[in-house]
Design goal:
This protein has 259 residues and is an alpha+beta fold. It is 24% helix and 31% strand. It has a 12-stranded mixed sheet with strand order 1-2-3-4-5-12-6-11-10-9-8-7.
């Protein structure tokens, strides 16, 4: 595949109209400089498209237009694609693990709970980048879709956090930003859980998203009961379920071909 420049990108509506709302948001978010990348089998009249952002990958089009080796860069990715891509994915990687997912949309406005004494819940500003970086490598996924702590901190209005002095205790952000939908992600530092901090951040963020005229969505594993409970409490309601696939390493036969 070849990487597409912004001037070469095809119209999004044609390629992602039938996908889940968060996938459309991911494809649009990947246009943010430094956030994601687009590939195609050819620059003019592409037959197959790949869009990557953070560790997520979308595939659309005709899988026969791609050789398995074209997917080699996408090890350890979460892949959402029509079922017709499964044979290609199975040939490209030594392991392909299905993961059942649940997608929610925000339907019930919920007022933010009051934070504990000494804790402030507010929008992130560019000055908060060092506090985000201080969360450490285990929490770095939360800003991967924005290209790092500085990218998320600079995205005014797209993230809320609970602070105690200069320390981030919990955070909710628009992980994928689209023109209609914004997919929400959140985390709480383990030692500060069960204080409703994530709920305070999520509900405040949802108010911002609604003011932009967009719909917040929520995407989580079917087995992640705490995430599902938080989504429901914050006013999200189940829309549909789907399966995405976690890729392993490139298949040995493909690795030998590339050598």
């Amino acid at each position: 595949m070849i990487e597409l420049s912004p001037s070469q990108l095809p119209r999004l509506a044609h390629w992602f109209a039938s996908g889940p709302p968060w996938a459309t948001a991911l494809a649009e978010h990947a246009l943010v400089p430094g956030a994601g990348r687009w590939w195609a089998d050819r620059a003019i009249d592409p037959r197959a498209i790949a869009v990557a952002c953070a560790d997520h990958l979308l595939l659309r089009g005709d899988p026969t237009a791609l050789a398995p080796i074209a997917l080699a860069p996408f090890t350890a990715h979460y892949v959402q694609a029509p079922a017709r891509f499964l044979p290609l994915l199975a040939n490209a990687f030594d392991r392909l693990v299905p993961w059942e997912r649940m997608v929610y949309a925000h339907h019930v406005p919920v007022p933010p709970p009051l934070p504990p004494r000494g804790t402030t819940v507010r929008r992130l500003t560019p000055k908060d980048a060092p506090a985000l970086a201080a969360l450490g490598p285990d929490q770095a996924w939360i800003h991967d879709s924005w290209g790092g702590p500085a990218g998320l901190a600079a995205a005014s209005g797209y993230a809320w956090a609970a602070f105690r002095k200069d320390e981030v205790l919990a955070l909710a952000c628009t992980y994928f930003r689209g023109s209609r939908y914004e997919d929400v992600a959140c985390l709480t530092v383990p030692e500060h859980r069960r204080q409703r901090l994530a709920l305070a951040c999520v509900t405040a963020l949802c108010q911002d998203i609604a003011l932009r005229g967009h719909t917040p969505t929520w995407n989580c594993s079917r087995d992640n009961r705490p995430s599902r409970l938080l989504a429901w409490t914050a006013g999200f309601r189940l829309e549909h379920e789907y399966v995405h696939y976690v890729t392993g390493q490139p298949a040995r036969r493909m690795t030998g071909l590339a050598a």
